[in-house]
Write a structure and sequence with these properties.
Length: 449
């Protein structure tokens, strides 16, 4: 195979993905294994495959979360017997049967934090019985396990051999956001979302838990918030639920980033001005921006003192009506997340020295345009009107990342449950589009070479 095909750097659109999956016999004759998302470097000079032992094992260091992932992938590898639509044309090696995968971790204590090393090196020899997976951290090993699982197919199981993979992400933040304030999703739906994210090597679940629409988070210290603010007693997240989601995320290499809006995304300045205390403050020549600065001054130092980086939506600096002075948000402790005005706000943020997470509504808000905000109009099905993200538009936004914006740390896509008029399962947050296929597009968008 031509080296450029092996090490190719193309970002696939939905159309090209369809061609790869449903192509004619010409592609069937090619020795191609489509790994997803595409690793940085794949070396497979000869199209070889080896039988995988039915007693195949994975040996790894003991780790609270990696050990769970090893068990999960071992079960998948031994029981799935995946039959790809395009079966790789390979030469089966004689005699060798892969008996085990040996996992080696350099830093077993590294926590799952922003910027953690997720690199790995996977080697499956053409002879011998052992494959090897070497990673800097447990989280990189999880990415390598996903890759290995995609190299196994058939019944009896075969695995590609004579292959090496070196992989590491371009962006340390590769996220998906789910809004459970506007539309409640049960815990099982959220876990399925996180599982699908892990399969696409996405690593941040941005959990937009609360907003002005509802407050489904049950806080033992303030139980009235959920009692009065949730859609109902069966639409609340208990501390046990939160713990389960966070633990499940760690077992899948996905960090849970909670968002609790204060006071809420759609609280208009007029609502603030209706409060008697704020009225008094404004009557003394105060401003709403000064009130926001008071809030930041009371919370920002506390968060930083906990050795945390604060993430704000871009509005805190870029809003035309209520915003704070830039001096209150030192760039070394602040990340700003963009959602408005396409790449322009991202450019404004990074030009000011801030790191940015891209969540542009024009590109990364998936399936917008349905529900009570705009209406269930079929013209939005094609993603060509309104605040609408599609697979193609999501991929087209990668030019921002390649345009010299070194301070862009990644992106977060949003299945637009905020635009849904009814509660639905996680597969269908709006009438038009399933979320899970878009996770593949998001994964590709955040891993360009």
């Amino acid at each position: 195979m031509d080296k450029n095909q092996i090490h190719g750097t193309a970002i696939f659109t939905l159309l090209s993905m369809a061609v790869m999956i449903f192509s004619s016999a010409t592609l069937v004759q090619c020795a191609v294994i489509n790994l997803w998302p595409k690793p940085r470097i794949v070396s497979w000079p000869l199209p070889l495959a080896t039988l995988l032992s039915p007693k195949f094992i994975i040996t790894s260091p003991n780790h609270r979360y990696l050990s769970t992932a090893v068990y999960r992938y071992l079960h998948l590898i031994l029981t799935e017997h995946h039959h790809p639509l395009v079966i790789p044309t390979v030469n089966l090696t004689n005699g060798s049967v892969v008996q085990s995968l040996i996992v080696t971790i350099h830093d077993l204590s590294a926590p799952l934090v922003h910027g953690v090393n997720e690199s790995y090196h996977l080697k499956i020899p053409s002879t011998g019985v052992e494959a090897s997976l070497t990673a800097e951290t447990a989280w990189g090993a999880m990415r390598g396990l996903e890759t290995f699982s995609q190299l196994v197919w058939g019944n009896p199981s075969h695995v590609a051999s004579g292959m090496e993979v070196w992989d590491w992400p371009i962006f340390e933040h590769r996220g998906v956001m789910l809004d459970t304030s506007r539309n409640f999703y049960n815990v099982e739906d959220i876990l399925r979302m996180i599982g699908a994210m892990s399969g696409n090597k996405l690593n941040v679940f941005h959990w937009h838990i609360t907003d002005s629409h509802s407050f489904p988070l049950l806080l033992p210290s303030e139980p009235g918030l959920a009692d009065k603010g949730s859609y109902g007693p069966d639409m609340q997240y208990s501390p046990k639920d939160v713990t389960r989601i966070v633990q499940f995320g760690l077992e899948h290499g996905v960090r849970v980033l909670p968002e609790i809006d204060m006071p809420g995304d759609e609280v208009a300045p007029g609502c603030w001005k209706a409060d008697p205390e704020i009225q008094e403050f404004l009557s003394k020549d105060g401003s709403l921006s000064e009130i926001l600065e008071m809030f930041l001054n009371s919370t920002f130092p506390y968060i930083v003192s906990m050795n945390r980086t604060v993430v704000y939506w871009e509005d805190v600096l870029l809003d035309q009506t209520v915003r704070v002075n830039r001096s209150l948000l030192p760039p070394e402790s602040t990340i700003l997340q963009t959602w408005n005005d396409g790449p322009n706000n991202t450019k404004a943020i990074v030009s000011s020295g801030y790191r940015a997470i891209v969540s542009s509504a024009d590109y990364y808000y998936l399936d917008c345009g349905h529900g009570s905000f705009i209406g269930n109009n079929s013209k939005y099905d094609q993603g060509n009107a309104g605040n609408t993200g599609t697979g193609d538009s999501c991929l087209s936004f990668t030019y921002v990342h390649r345009g010299g914006f070194q301070l862009v740390v990644g992106g977060t896509a949003k299945p637009s449950s905020s635009k849904s008029s009814q509660r639905r399962g996680i597969d269908f947050p709006s009438p038009s589009v399933s979320v899970f296929p878009f996770l593949e597009v998001v994964s590709s968008s955040l891993r360009p070479l």
